[in-house]
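Q: Structure tokens for this one, please.
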Amino acid sequence: MLRQKHGIREGSRLASMLIYLATGLCCIITVYPMYYVLIRSVSAPEHALAGDMLLFPKGFDLNSYRVILSDTTLWRAYGNTLLYVVVTTLLMLLFCTLCAYPLCMPGLLGKKAVVTYLLVPMYFSGGLIPTFLVMNRLGLYNNIWAVILPGSLSIWNIILARTYFASIPDTIRESAAIDGASHFTILLRIYTPLAKPILAVISIYTIVITWNSWFNALVYLPDTALQPLQLYLRRVLLENTVDLTKLPMNEVAEAVRRSLSNVQLKYAMIIFTTLPVLFAYPFFQKHFVKGIMVGSLKG
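A: Here is the predicted structure, written as tokens:
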């Protein structure tokens, strides 16, 4: 047993060692695949194709990153994705707070009926074809709002925000109302600052989902100038292939060299497109754990 300065005993050395060992093993299992992609992206093309490295790159080569940085199409897709992520996240936070606040009011007429109604589309949807027809009738086909609007409202996030708002004591709201504060002022000045943890959870969920989304863009955005980064990455990974049997003999060597470079380029693009999400998480980490625990347990 371990004895702390205040005399409280906690656990045993063996249990602590096993916990640290299991945690370290989980970290290695989680991090190593990304690290493996990284070392393949900076290895020489022939080694990147063979995949014969485990811990360190072989034949250090950054040519794939030079190609990425000079690709104007990729940067345009990057800008589109950043636009979709920022606008979708802001709209998600706006709609979730505006929907969650009245649903946590004790005197709201028909509150249970509204909550029950919201649960239905959370489990059942109209399907792809009806959604496509609606988007087309609204004039959103080949429009950036066809990607932004469907991802700007989540019933699950509304329920999370409502549960968190309900955990805030009513006395705070009542005191503000007695002082003459309107519902808008109470929401903006009291509930929103107190709900930073759950808003951080909703933000990181929305950022990750929007950043990795590609199917809606594939369906609704035929214009490549409007397509996001993940759809561009999908085209590179799936369509950038060469059938060597259909090439003349004098072009086979060049095609093989390009194929080797393409393998290295694919891994470099995976790293390049994942970095923004990895860098965004630390900004939300402060509130993330508290928000996901409180928002899911209280209510």
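A few notes: The beta strands are 2-3, 9-10. The longest helix spans residues 249-297.
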